[in-house]
Amino acid sequence: MTRLATEPRVSGALDARIVVRQGGHHLDVSLRVEPATTLAILGPNGAGKTTLLRAVAGLTSLEGGRVQLGPTVLDDPTSADWVPPDERSVGFVFQDDVLFPHLNARDNVAFGPRSRGVGRIESRRRADAWLERLDVAAVATHRPARLSGGQARRVALARALAAEPWLLLLDEPLTSLDAAARVATRALLRRHLEAHRGPCLLVTHDPLDALTLADSVLVLEAGVVVQRGTPDEIAARPRSRYAADLAGVNLLRGRVVDAGTVRLASGVDLAVADAEPAAGTAVVAIVHPRAVA
Q1: Which segments of 61-117 does DSSP mark as H helices, in order?
Q2: Cβ atoms within 10 A of the Cβ of 52, count?
Q3: Most exposed of 45, 191, 230, 250 (fewest Cβ within 10 Å)?
Q4: pLDDT tens string 99-137
Q5: CB 36 within 8 A of CB 197
């Protein structure tokens, strides 16, 4: 059995293939995230985004595949290599916060440093600094039951960041925030991710989060990857209706008639700048709203 020591910290890329079956859902995803980069994972409800994060964190069992962080194998069912979740250098912001109900906000945030051997006074100092940055210092002594949804979300984010993990897993980190807090927290998170030396996986439904926080985007649908690229690449050439809806463009399915014409399923001919595929090829024409007058 392989175990990951708290010190020295791990380093390197996240390299994973995640195979999980839950009920009628089948997740099979391969990905690699280099250090100092953020991969945004977008997809409709039920696509398997949260399951993917939980599998990387060791909270959901793999049926196949492998999770490796730098030189260390975290999970490999075929070899029985396994690092328990609490021994992985991973910071996880859960979609539903999952704060410790018996601890106040300060001690929730201080938990990460404390678990890595930092003394009580220094852990609380770090916790107070993060609570101040996220504008929730006023509720430092409040337990989770007294926090609003937005306050709990920012405390959960502070708890993940205060531990200074190598790998960050962020599941909808900006939900429950009002418009003003969302803008401010997004800006702070972006600054942190720009300075973060390890890889980061960000699950979000908001294309603005992907555009402003991520280096690349992975579109997940029905448990499989349908597209991966930079936000600009996804917006320019979406490969599914979901991706097109995210990009704010329209997809029109049809077949090539000639180099300048695509015939839609309705029988309408659409004039296009160019159609590289041969006549008769099934294609999808992409129409940007800004191109319509």
Answers
A1: 105-115
A2: 26
A3: 45
A4: 999 999 999 999 989 988 899 999 999 999 999 999 999
A5: yes
